[in-house]
Amino acid sequence: MARAGMTAERLTRAAADLADEIGFANVTVSALARLFGVKPAALYAHVKDLRDLRARVASLALTELADRAASALAGRAGKDALVAFANAYRAYAKEHPGRYAAAQLELDSEAIDVSAGVRHAEMTRAILRGYDLAEPDQTDAVRMLHSTFHGYVSLETAGGFRRHPREADASWSRTLDALDAVLRNWPPA
Amino acid sequence: MARAGMTAERLTRAAADLADEIGFANVTVSALARLFGVKPAALYAHVKDLRDLRARVASLALTELADRAASALAGRAGKDALVAFANAYRAYAKEHPGRYAAAQLELDSEAIDVSAGVRHAEMTRAILRGYDLAEPDQTDAVRMLHSTFHGYVSLETAGGFRRHPREADASWSRTLDALDAVLRNWPPA
DNA sequence: CTAGTTTCCTTAAAGGTATTAAGCAAATGA
DNA sequence: TCATTTGCTTAATACCTTTAAGGAAACTAG
User: Fold this and answer.
1) Nearest by CB to A174, which of B25, B140, B170?
2) Other beta carbons within 10 Å of B119
3) What tens digit of pLDDT does each residue of B8-61 get?
4) Model-level pTM?
5) Which of A58, B56, B85, B113 is deepest in the core (most CB within 10 A)?
6) Residues of A in contact with B175 (CB under 8 A)
7) Are A123 and B122 in contact (CB under 8 A)?
8) Inter-residue long-range contacts of A79-83, CB under 8 Å, 24+ positions, other chains counted
């Protein structure tokens, strides 16, 4: 029997692709084994178990998302930076729904690489440099931005905006206008 | 063998409670059957399948959430209404994480009762009556509010705010201040 | 170039899940 | 009290995860 040339990285990448196709929840050891023309048990030489595999996909997604956001952010400031970051975030989630789902589901898992999370926080703070916010307002604003981005993308993906004819793109754009406005004019405590 | 007295409603309620305890993803036909002291196959007389059971839990959660939000909203206007609604939303999600997860996951399912979703939308519009927004700004604002609420609760539940010492309650309160501010001063297109 | 070792996959097996079909026993009602 | 309906069990199929043990292929020495 010829060898399939599996590695943890290749399995992770394939699992991520599979997640984007059939949904993160449907990514299974068996399905992945079929993809590699191999028996399920063979995967356990490269990956601890299903939980581990999922954590790896989550880590991959967080890293990719951070990379995209970082390059979108490069050389921009103020509202430009805000919009570029937000659009990169949303585009990634729409392009890679399975990866995005993985990134969310596993925030609490200790198995996960924290570095990507730290990068996200740093980038969001970088956006805020264009606005005049001191602590603890800055932390509050970071949380609000992240919440709005994640919430919007999450609801949009779940089909929450399909009942109303207004384009999701238009509301997104206006939401970013509103965020910019409130960051420029952050209410006093 | 004594009868367990199962009905679709009781199963749904028990499944919802179970979801709050062990997580929505871990709610299984077998676990529910164990809870009722019954073989798994027995449930199929009352519920079509696992998918159906989950949709019922989602529907229950959406209705409960809408009820809570409605009573929180009663007799309030302006920022009072916004804060009351938001707090009711967040409190429900924290109190019933399994139910809340169910409510999100199944937005696209056709099997679900749409009435609860409509009620949510109507209530959010009711909040906006205290602010001066015409269409399509109103729809955009509804989407932004919902996104922020869901995103915040979702990230908080997943542990996304635990890395920073700032209290999640405080950031939540300030986020509501910011939303109020931006609704009062919605940016022009 | 061949023998030993390591590496990677397979087979085998145990246990969990969903789901359907058939059967039996308890409640219902004529 | 008998017949019917209702509600559960048993049985069977078909997945899934995961561990343990075995074999073949690819390396590594001599």
Assistant:
1) B140
2) 17
3) 999 999 999 999 999 999 999 999 999 999 999 999 999 999 999 999 999 999
4) 0.93
5) A58
6) 140, 143-144, 147
7) no
8) A79/A130, A79/A176, A79/A180, A81/A126, A81/A127, A81/A130, A82/A127, A82/A130, A82/A145, A82/A176, A82/A179, A82/A180, A82/A183, A83/A176, A83/A180
